[in-house]
Amino acid sequence: MKMVFKNSKMFQNGTFVSTDAFFDGKVFSLGYPSSSEDEYTVYDNCFIMPGFCDVHVHFREPGFSYKEDIESGSKAAARGGYTCVCTMPNLNPTPDSRENLDIQLNAIKEKAKIKVVPFGTITKLEAGLELSDMEDIACDVVGFSDDGRGVQSEDMMLLAMKNSASLGKIISAHCEDNSLLRGGYIHDGEYARIHGHRGICSESEWGPIKRDIELVKKTGCSYHVCHISTKESVELIRKAKAEGVDISCETGPHYLVMNDMMLGEEGRFKMNPPIRSEEDRCALVEGILDGTIEMIATDHAPHSAEEKSKGLEKSLMGVVGLETAFPILYTELVMKGIISLEKLVELLSLNPRKRFGLEGDAGITVFECNTPYEINSDEFVSKGKSSPFLGRRVYGRNLMTLYDSKIAYIAE
Question: What superfamily does domain 46-410 belong to in CATH?
Answer without folding.
Answer: Metal-dependent hydrolases (3.20.20.140)
